[in-house]
């Protein structure tokens, strides 16, 4: 034989026979056994000594890694780098991380499965397989089953392999040479492949665009998004002022949001006093409001040290300072309604009772840090 041998193929037409043949030949260790069949043959994988794929374990490993990384990242972001209380929940609320953790797990697992299968196990970019160039391949893809003994070492004995296949009942035997293109893809071939993929994407994209834009304008295939309707943020020729969204009727007041009767926090401090009695329930409510909305900037004890990273440059008021402690309740309420410099107004987010409850809670924080003798039981 002139060129090197890739494998010796034996053809069978009976699934039982090929399994028996594989069982006979395997112990003789003539070379690596491989089988090509037009349909799955039970027991053949064991007969040729095929190990379970390592892909599953790899995918598992990368999936777990993805989950771990996502959990670490979310935990770090939400509990360490930018601790933000959301809806009164703990900073490290793993339940909230589940969707992202799940997605990243799937992402890592699927990419590992696809890329490892193509590049690690199927050895891309190495297209084709020597057996595809054999004469037998036409029969194999129709109704014949092939057992191949691949040359794994230099001392491969093609004649012994041929004989072994014939002895174990092969109907015919073919020697498959190592093909001349047995090398990784050339640069030109690689570029050609990339160009073909890009061309396919362009054609598919343009085709989809054409299908979406051109074909369905033929009645009755009108798209639902083309129906005549009013888009709140779009222009509209329907109304005289050309706006889709209608302005509120003059004098409209949002329910529960009466405009304040004061213009500055100082004025509020003179006009208003806390209407809520300080009960256990109100104190609890104040704490909830404070921890959800205020602690992030003013600190959980109200000392004006933000929980935010140093990127936040504002200087929130220190509720424990003598200056702010001396201000009346109405002043705090006024700041909550109107905001003050870098402090946002909470008129839209909190209702009246929430605001007064928060004011009570600020007083509680102040008293906790400045307890007097009378506070002792
Ligand atoms: C985004 C950060 C931020 C949040 C959230 C925030 N504040 Fe402030 N707050 C500030 C800053 C900054 C100041 C200082 C404003 C100034 O004096 O320039 C301030 C000042 C104050 C003052 C003192 C005003 C004064 O007269 O000196 C009060 C009272 C106050 N905040 C209450 C609250 C309450 C109650 C909440 C929660 C509902 C809250 N703040 C949420 C940033 C914040």
Percent strand equals: 5-15%
Q: Cα-atom Rg, whole angstroms? A: 38 Å
SS element count, helices: 12
> What is the N-to-C succession of helices and strands?
EHEHHHHEHEHHHHHH
Give a short account of the largest sheet.
4 strands, antiparallel
Estimate the global geometry from the Cα principal axes. elongated
Distance between the termini: 105 Å
Strand order, biggest sheet? 2-3-1-4
Task: Describe the model.
This protein has 377 residues and is an alpha+beta fold. 45% of the residues lie in helices and 7% in strands. Strands 2-3-1-4 form a 4-stranded antiparallel beta sheet. The protein is elongated and about 110 Å long. The structure holds heme C (HEC). Residues 265, 293-294, 296-298, 314-317, 324, 327, 332, 335-336, 340-344, 346, 358 line the site of heme C (HEC).
